[in-house]
Write a structure and sequence with these properties.
By secondary structure, the protein is of the alpha+beta class. It is 36% helix and 42% strand. Strands 1-2-3-4 form a four-stranded antiparallel beta sheet, with no helix packed on it. A hairpin with a 2-residue loop joins strand 3 and strand 4.
């Protein structure tokens, strides 16, 4: 994984290159009334990207991302 951009405690942009694809993940953290808001974006390109979309890998990824964010929330709550 390549960290393309990093703003401490605010934003991270990572690039992963599995075979035939380029996946760019963006995570932003913003203060909110209830604590923080995590915003995530993903960009998938490359010759295998269409196949991944047809196989609905985005839905699988979304489920995994929700679990990951739940773990981050639990970790943050444990530290506060």
């Amino acid at each position: 994984m390549l960290i393309r951009k990093l703003e401490r405690d605010r934003y991270i942009e990572c690039e992963v290159r599995p075979p035939g694809m380029v996946v760019i993940n963006r995570y932003a953290v913003e203060p909110s009334e209830r604590g923080v808001r995590i915003t995530h974006g993903i960009e998938v390109s490359g010759r295998v990207a269409r196949l991944a979309k047809a196989m609905q890998l985005d839905k699988l990824y979304t489920r995994l991302l929700k679990k990951e964010i739940s773990r981050l929330i639990a970790l943050a709550e444990a530290r506060s």
